[in-house]
Amino acid sequence: MTDSDADADARSRPPETPRRPVTDELHGESITDPYRWLEGDDEEVDEWTAAQNDYAEAVLDTPARAALADRFASRGRVDEYGPVGVAGDRLFQEVRRPDDEQPVVYAYDEAAAVGTDAGTALVDPNDWAGDGTVSVDWFVPGPEGRYLAYGVAEGGDEQYDVRVVGVVTGEPVETVADAGRTQADGFAWVAGDAPDGADATAPDPRGFYYVATGVADGDADADGQLDKTVRFHEFGSGTAPAADHVVDDGVGETTWPTLVADGDALVAQYMEGWERTDLYGYRGDPATATLDPVVTGVDAVFKPTIDGERDRLLVATDHDAAFARVLAAPLADALAGRRPRRATSTNSSPRRTPSSAASNSPATGCSRTTTATPAARWSSSTPTAPASGRSTSRRSRPSTGWWGSATTATPPPPATTATTARPPTWRSVGCSRSPTRRLSAASTSRPARRRRCVPSRRPSAST
């Protein structure tokens, strides 16, 4: 056999892989894996891997491969640009050059400079580790674009250190080490108090809210990254997560909070799977923040935004809306939990006492009974409430808060006796979407595809 015949024979058959069945009993079912031995880390596995690589090289080693190599390489040497973030008068963007292992975060002073060499390389992880295993996985510009917070992970473990850098100086300001699986949508800056006078220097931020987790320990039944706590970090304090103020430590393992803050207001979206969210809120000093219900116990998606004027809460929802819509309510009313007039209700849910609120230990064992009169008819653009309250056994916090009614359905009862305060009136301000594209709670961090908005033509409540 000639060498060419030997090469052809080698390309015709891949190396044999021995079958060594291993059977596991899982949930009453027998599952057999014939290749479990390949999960080992021994010399036999190394030899098998080398033989597979030799086979692949023999098959691909053709004259056409060499001719195409340069063309493929040139086509792949392109710059990659991330989305642009805006804060104050500055713009921020991740850019990855062909020779970069990791993208670099750039800051720009004007829109015309975005994507050019006029930007400032603010965070360059390529300078940290030669093998490119240390990365910046997310970043959030601070108020007025004076600071930038970003998450640093090593080896893709999603165990982040939160670092803050000054945009003008490029110097590090502080690091919150071992914050856990903190993400951009679980991070929200809190601006400092407005300066006095037109020429006053903008203040430093007050701090930031963030979702901290434990450490992944490799045990699927006790993954520390599923232990989540909403915290507030005082800017420049240098405190570790364990010393930061606890806003809520009652987050369930399958619940992922998204945080939105503006001024002294905080709204937390708690995602329960893919098609349900609960909203909680707070307004006041962030150093003593706790979360109170805004909209809970409704099987629908609610995606909140606080408008720039801080006077309205905007919510995109698919509740009773096949095409989805955006609703608006006065922010102060929404976060104060003001509800429609109703009769006295009883609730076996224990309320947080001042001591329990301070320790952030949520009440448990929720159930409720109620006798309530129908709510007044609101504008038909207001979503319809469920007919009664519902247990929130999936959460350890009572399901209270307010919710409006477009019909004679009874809104969920409050946690204590009835209130006579007027509810925040929802008003539809949104646009229609395709009914085939369901609003997803998991899409909060992804920009939605731009659509042409059309006025909603719904009959009035009086028709």
Automatic annotation (TrEMBL):
Residues 15-333 form the Peptidase S9A N-terminal domain. Residues 337-364, 398-409, 416-425, 432-446 have a biased composition (Low complexity). Residues 1-37, 337-463 are annotated as: Disordered. InterPro entries: AB_hydrolase_fold, Pept_S9A_N, Prolyl_oligopep/macrocyclase. Residues 8-30 have a biased composition (Basic and acidic residues). Residues 366-383 have a biased composition (Polar residues). It comes from the Archaea. This is Peptidase S9A N-terminal domain-containing protein. It comes from Halobaculum litoreum. The lineage of its organism: Archaea, Methanobacteriati, Methanobacteriota, Stenosarchaea group, Halobacteria.
